[in-house]
Amino acid sequence: MRLTIFDLDHTLLAGDSDYGWGQFMVCHGLVDPDEYAQKNAAFYAAYQAGKLDHAAYMAFSLEPLTRYAMEELDAWHRKFMAEIIEPLMTAPGRLLVQERLQAGDLVVIVTSTNSFITRPIARAYGVEYLIATDPEVRDGSYTGRIVGIPAFREGKVTRLHSWLGQCGKRLDDFAQSWFYSDSTNDLPLLETVTHPVAVDPDHALRQIAEQRRWPIITLREHASPPTNS
Fold first, then answer.
1. What share of the chain is helix, strand, coil (3-state, %, to 5)?
2. Is the N or C terminus of the chain more exposed, i.e. has fewer CB atoms within 10 Å?
3. Which pLDDT score, from 0 to 100, does residue 153 have?
4. Is the predicted pLDDT of residue 229 greater than 80, yes or no?
5. Cα–Cα distance measured from residue 52 to residue 42, given in angstroms and rounded to the nearest whole number
């Protein structure tokens, strides 16, 4: 059996679903446009620079979910999928996922973006298994807090091992394992698998991939811009 792991943002997607959700909320008046857009952009810049305070970002990004009923959020998310996400799901990315599924690999998406945003995206790719940062839900509403370990940096490795254990497996059970990612934030998990693959990598990851002779690929062909960016 083979294990194939995909990062989501800037890897399978030709963009960032977390940042896109923030833009979507601004455009549709779900948050204060000036304040939220400014903070969202600042957090995104910190992420790109590898300096993100993940706990602070999670508190910021999850707070708006506490203001709305689940039914409203689900309706907004369907609109978000159509306007923002579907244009970012490139043909090469879709094809690669389907090839791995059809080959019989155990396929999982591992992303630091919260599962409210990403679970419908994983379903759109036909991927059953998702490891994401999980928002807390109590009495049918989001609390603004997270549950468990965030799936970020070393947390992705911890969460992967925990998930495999729940499935009755260990990483060593797989003769071959792949992880596709764009970011140096994912270096801990890239170093854990037998086949790390850099996908449209940031500058730092490209340098590492070239030094270590990791494959470097692109999945960006045929991407179209979001309709509401």
1. 50, 20, 30
2. N
3. 94
4. no
5. 9
pTM of this prediction?
0.91
Is residue 74 flagged as an active site residue? no
Q: What angle do CA 105, 173, 114 make, to 5 degrees?
A: 60
171: which residues sit within 8 A by CB, 6+ positions away? 3, 160, 161, 164, 177, 192, 193
Pick the CATH number of 2-217 from 3.90.79.20, 1.10.1740.10, 1.10.540.10, 3.40.50.1000: 3.40.50.1000
Q: Among this protein's residues, is 139 annotated catalytic? A: no
Q: What angle do CA 138, 52, 210 make, to 5 degrees?
A: 125
Decide if pLDDT at 209 tops 60.
yes
Query: Tens of pLDDT along 31-80?
Result: 998 888 889 889 888 877 878 888 898 889 999 999 999 999 999 999 99
pLDDT of residue 46: 87
In the beta sheet, which residues pair with residue 138? 141
Element (H or E) spanning 188, and its range? Answer: helix 187-190
Q: Characterize 143-180 residue by residue with b for buried, 16 or more Cβ atoms within 10 angstroms of its Cβ, and e for exposed.
A: ebebeeebbbbebbbbbbeebbeeeeeeeeebeebbbb
192 within 8 A of 157, measured Cβ to Cβ: yes
* Identified catalytic residue from 9, 105, 134, 182: 9
Q: What is the pLDDT of residue 51?
A: 84
Q: Phi and psi of 33, rounded to 5°?
A: -65, -45
What is the rounded CA–CA span in Å between residue 213 and residue 207? 10
* Alpha-helical runs (H) found in 31-183: 33-48, 54-62, 70-80, 91-102, 115-124, 154-166
